[in-house]
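[job 4471] stage=fold_predict status=RUNNING
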Amino acid sequence: MDADFLSQQREKLLQKRRELQLALNLTPQDESSEEVKDPLDAAVTYANRELAARQAEQYRQLLQDVEDALERIADGTYGICQGSGEEIPRKRLEAIPWARYTAAYQEKIERGLVSE
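[job 4471] inference complete, writing structure tokens
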């Protein structure tokens, strides 16, 4: 990987990290002390809390993936598939800067043929 490409990818990752940190800071906190009397309102409130919790977990996981990618840039392993050891194509990294695997290896993971 050339230095210019790595610099561009690092900037993309830093921007994504800022976006995710902001989104996590804006995620509503649990308001379980709030009592809802109407059963329908309670169901909607519960569903909204569950959705917010799942979304926050997805943001945290993506943030970890971004942090891991920044570490790989720092240690010189960015762009190398963590499963096969092959180089991840530049187009894939441009689309998904935090990619850890080639598309072929990712597909094997999703099919259950290999583990992460």
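[job 4471] summary: The first helix runs from residue 3 to 26.
[job 4471] exit 0
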